[in-house]
Amino acid sequence: MNEKIRYTFSPDKTLPLYIDSIGYNPQELDFNRPEGYPYYHWLQTIEGEGVLEFASEKYVLKQGQGILLTPYTPHMYHPNYKKTSEWSTFYLTFSGAAIDSILSALNMNFSAVYEESEVSLFYRHINKIFHNLEDNVQTNLMGYDLSTYLYTFLMLLKKYGKLNNRLSTLQSFEKIRYIVEWLEQVYPENIGLHEISKKADVSSQHLNKLFHDTFGMSPYSFLVQLRIREAKRLLLTDPDLTLKDLSQKVGFNGVSHFVSTFKKREGITPKQYRDLHLNNHSFEGEV
Predict the structure, then answer these.
(1) Which domain holds residue 148?
(2) pTM score, two decimals?
(3) Residue 150 maps to a domain
(4) What is the pLDDT of residues 255-278, one digit of tens each?
(5) Residue 226: helix, strand or coil by DSSP?
(6) What is the mean pLDDT of residues 43-48?
(7) Residues 6+ apart with CB under 8 A from 257
(8) Which residue in 119, 124, 155, 164 is deepest, having the highest Cβ count within 10 Å?
(9) Do 130 and 252 have their domain in common?
(10) Helical pair 219-237 and 193-200, crossing angle rounded to 10 deg
(11) 12: Cβ contacts below 8 Å, ≥ 6 apart
């Protein structure tokens, strides 16, 4: 594969397991996610090398190595410029109503670096998913099919993945986990720092400290990041949605506020983001 591939889905979140997105990037870019990602995130090196930074530590991802990140794990990654600027990867983001209990039963409910014990084993499985998505682009794969692929991948990772490094957890996150989970549910509503502090039952100053210790940003900035993240998903999965309707769905007070905030954080306008990514095999699955 030489072209960038990205499939995004609108999953049935009542399923025990579901795939949020899957993709291949022939040239991985620099990413900085101080708020982490809301789903479990698998990122694996196909060629070249990459560097992932987490909690002031660095982990080199060589060919055949990948990292499993738990939700909301602050991180950044980039090609290993000391050796090469080339870094091709595939990724998988996923969740599910039973994901925590399944990963706990497998003793995999933590962020960690893994290495394939059989060359290209994980890559072949992900490539199989790509081929099935391409073959079913008209009829679409159902959520049950994608859940089966995800379960098989987790079994392969458990059986054939050599655990290289287990990443330390951020204790500060445990103190605000329930607030983060609450924000995931209410981000479209008209809320601000006052409502967040009231829900947390702590002063705004103390809440600010907890969020800065965990994510390096204020609670309100974290809320805005959630809105932007959902806006990016809707831009790809519902391309006919107007910017006015989209901005309302994700909690912005007006289109101009949404567009200016999006451009400030992403460097491009929502329309430019949509046009750029819809040319890269983006796909809305019936899941």
Answers:
(1) 5-166
(2) 0.76
(3) yes
(4) 999 999 999 988 899 999 888 877
(5) helix
(6) 95
(7) 247
(8) 164
(9) no
(10) 110
(11) 18, 143, 287
